[in-house]
Write a structure and sequence with these properties.
Blueprint (H helix, E strand, L loop, with lengths): L20 E3 L2 E3 L6 E5 L7 H13 L4 E5 L3 H13 L5 E4 L7 H4 L5 E4 L13 H14 L3 E7 L5 H6 L4 H18 L5 E6 L3 H14 L5 E3 L9 H14 L6 E2 L12 H14 L15 E4 L10 H12 L9 E5 L5 H4 L5 E5 L3 E6 L2 E7 L3 H16 L8
Parallel strand pairs: 3-4, 3-10, 4-5, 5-6, 6-7, 7-8, 8-9, 9-10, 11-12, 12-13
Antiparallel strand pairs: 1-2, 13-14, 14-15
Helix pairs in contact: 6-7, 7-8, 8-9
């Protein structure tokens, strides 16, 4: 365990009932310490920047570091990085390209796939065939697997089947994929069910844990956003779940400059230590009753580093509207951005040179990074007039 604290079960943390699995030299589940992880926020092919991210996270004593790949060029970059960091424990995010599994598996300790992304390639093949393909690569290379279900990219079939209960759509997708892996004789896997709303994270993991108490869980609030709000959103979920014996590894997803990425590990360890020692911090009165800004934590999927600055600028610009119950989502990539802005009053998802502005599911236009703040303010002002004609904030 790289971390300073063992996070043993205490009166403030009920015993975990999950089975133990291994991610390289890191063991999670059951009585194993709760592992703390983060994700490199750089383009994987930028070797210098990605190596720096790994150095920062290693210095912060990350147990697992996640890196994304979306092409064979990314895999070659990962191969070069592995020579530089032979002992790092790595999880790889396959994004939309499950076919990379056999060539990336020899370089990493865990493969994360998103059930909601498996339909993108080779549509003539079944989901089960694609899962078998990933499992075969994991078995041959002694890799763990994470079934990573994300609120913004739930498999369309489950989204349609459970359109009145988004939490159940996530849970059913995860449970069904667990069954597939079980039937394939693969046990070295864990699950994550993530949402940008703390309460949905709590509900999803409680439901899943009740049905599959044996499966280790990775916890996190996706797009928690900027500190301190992002820390509080994450703390809400982790305090309630970990104290109940739910959760075997965690990530605190914060929107931070690349050089500060180690804060995710530091904050995660602080939260775990507080839970273990019974220091539960109360949620501020009326927290999130007014303006709520959702922002993703930045990762290698981000195509323009201006995204982090934009998220911070949005928060500063919207201070005048903090009493109004509006949700603004600022997303950094094309993978999760379009779907995860659907539930926001106003959403921004960022491309290499343009920022796409949405109102709910409706696309309003595409603007340069220099134009977007002014256009966003116009939409906020109009929405305040439409939703709060008397100038009144949350009811």
């Amino acid at each position: 365990m790289k971390g300073e604290y063992p996070y043993r079960n205490t009166k403030n943390m009920k015993p975990r009932k999950t089975r133990k699995i291994h991610i390289g030299k890191v063991e999670i589940g059951g009585s194993a310490p709760i592992a703390v992880q983060s994700m490199a926020a750089t383009q994987t092919q930028n070797l210098e920047a990605t190596a720096r991210q790994i150095e920062i996270l290693e210095a912060a004593k990350a147990d697992v570091i996640r890196i994304a790949v979306d092409s064979e060029q990314d895999v070659e970059a990962l191969r070069a990085l592995r020579q530089q960091f032979p002992d790092s424990v790595w999880s790889v995010d396959l994004q939309e390209n499950y076919k990379l599994a056999p060539i990336v598996a020899p370089l990493v300790n865990k493969i994360r796939y998103n059930p909601g992304h498996l339909f993108h390639l080779e549509k003539e093949k079944t989901i089960r065939e694609k899962v078998e393909f990933i499992v075969k690569a994991a078995k041959e290379n002694d890799c763990a697997i994470r079934i990573g279900v994300n609120c913004g990219s739930v498999d369309p079939d489950y989204k349609e089947r459970y359109k009145d209960d988004s939490v159940e759509a996530m849970v059913r997708s995860a449970v069904d994929h667990c069954q597939m892996l079980d039937e394939m004789g693969f046990e070295n896997y864990c699950v994550s069910l993530k949402d940008s709303e703390s309460q949905k994270v709590i509900e999803a993991n409680q439901r899943f844990s009740k049905e599959r108490p044996d499966v280790p869980l990775h916890l996190g609030v996706t797009e928690a956003g900027l500190p301190p709000e992002g820390i509080i959103k994450t703390r809400i979920a982790l305090e309630q779940l970990i104290s109940a014996g739910i959760g075997d590894t965690i990530r605190v997803s914060l929107t931070l400059p690349n050089e500060d990425k180690g804060q995710e590990i530091q904050v995660g360890r602080e939260i775990l230590k507080d839970i273990e020692e019974g220091r539960f911090r109360s949620v501020p009165e009326n927290f999130l009753e007014g303006l709520n800004i959702i922002a993703c934590p930045s990762c290698s999927r981000v195509e323009n580093d201006k995204f982090v600055d934009l998220a911070q600028d949005v928060r500063k610009m919207t201070e005048y509207a903090e009493k109004y119950k509006l949700t603004i989502a600022v997303m950094g990539c094309r993978v999760n951005g379009p779907g995860e802005t659907d539930d926001a009053d106003l959403g921004l998802w960022c491309g290499p040179t343009r920022v796409n502005l949405k109102k709910g599911t409706e696309t309003l236009g595409s603007y340069s990074y220099e134009e977007i703040l002014g256009q966003l303010k116009k939409e906020i002002d109009q929405m305040i007039l439409d939703k709060f004609p008397l100038g009144v904030g949350p009811a």
